[in-house]
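# nightly structure sweep
# worker-07 picked up a monomer target from the shared queue
# config: single-sequence mode, recycle default, output format = structure tokens
# input follows
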Amino acid sequence: MGFKKDFLWGGATAANQIEGAFNRAGRGLTTMDTLTVGDKNTPRQITYKTLEGEIKYAERLSAIPEGAVGHIIPNEFYPSHSGIQFYDHYKDDIKLFSEMGFKAYRMSISWTRIFPKGNELEPSEAGLSFYDSVFDECIKYGIEPVVTLCHFDTPLYLANQYDGWSSRKVIDFFSHYCETVFKRYKNKVKYWITFNEINVLRSWLQIGIHKNDDQTKFQALHHIFLASAKAVQLCHEIIPNAQIGNMVMYAPSYAMTARPEDVIENINYKRQVEFYLDVQVKGYYPAYKLKEFERKSVSIEMEEGDLELLSNGTVDFIGFSYYMSTMSTIDSSVPKTPGNNILSYKNPNLEVSEWGWTVDPLGLRIALCEMYDRYHVPLFIVENGLGANDNLLSNGQVDDDYRIDYLRAHIKAMKDAVDLDGVDLMGYTPWGCIDLIAWSTGEMKKRYGFIYVDVDDKGNGSFKRYKKLSFDWYKNVIATNAENIT
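# output follows
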């Protein structure tokens, strides 16, 4: 019993949150590069230029006006521009990952390091060489790269010139990018993920669309589904021994009461993620979503062969993030609390983190059971973790017992799902294995890692790395395959 002998223990990051070097070696700009810093009380903002040339701001989940251009303002701070300087520190960082015993490292490739505009015919050799070096460093230590092809950013040129994923042409640009990296890294990368948290892609910031109406969003999503299916087929053709999965944000929901109205509301909530899994795992649009399209007067423009492509391009595994659970109710007076890309109803039975996210270890077992019972494909927890305001002591230590308690409880829930429920679980890569820029707020003080990075919310600091108390704890978890988790 317990986890498989080849269980993929590791950690996870994203290029736009760690790499920095946003304009070095020919890298092009992405939508994420226009996003300013915020905090838990102040939304991050997109900087853009109007058609009249005026510089303005938009909240990160708002669309910028059609025709407007994402813009970088001098003297404004953009966290992605420096990240944690992984671009310069990757060898030392991967060495620390190996010291913890990582079997896998989930990371992403920046599309614009390979194709600066997103639509070039020839790739950037400098960008390809950088990731060659990163993968070689992983392989040197026996760490399997788990590579996300698109993690929350769109090449800025494609957003501005093509209206992002609302254009069907972007499918071909993405496929060319995928084919390029599959061929280049076919002997180095065996695990791939198409789009990060596909069920929360909805704005100019993430997918380059200037309108946020249902018709535009779902048409863009159809193109993303097709691009993902093409990537699956290309991967299987070019790297026959590889596995390629999708990735969703999964937050299980509980009906707040036994009222039938709350129960049906809960079903409707769950369908918001099941839809994305149904398309990518089962290969077709489910009936309940087609009925929703009818009600909302959404008409998806399809071409001959689209449905066949979705059917033939289903994923090998489900990757997902788990941070929290939520509840469903028709009672709008119930207070809400922040969460991972959602506002959730506050559960009186559960505590919340310093940033207001519900903490629910048993919810992870529930999530694993729900997905495995419905889809019967291997599951991979590619994000999970606790964002907290860690303190670096004068002796260079960070005592993060609270993170150890959080992770221990969640790993115990994973083990129960495997041992008691028969879930086929591939691996576990906690989010932000090294401190990084928080996606939700842009802060550095919201830290997730086993490794502390000395940099503040404005990008000031030595960028020196320090091991936290959780570093050695996780090292022991991996070494024992979590046999001693209680």
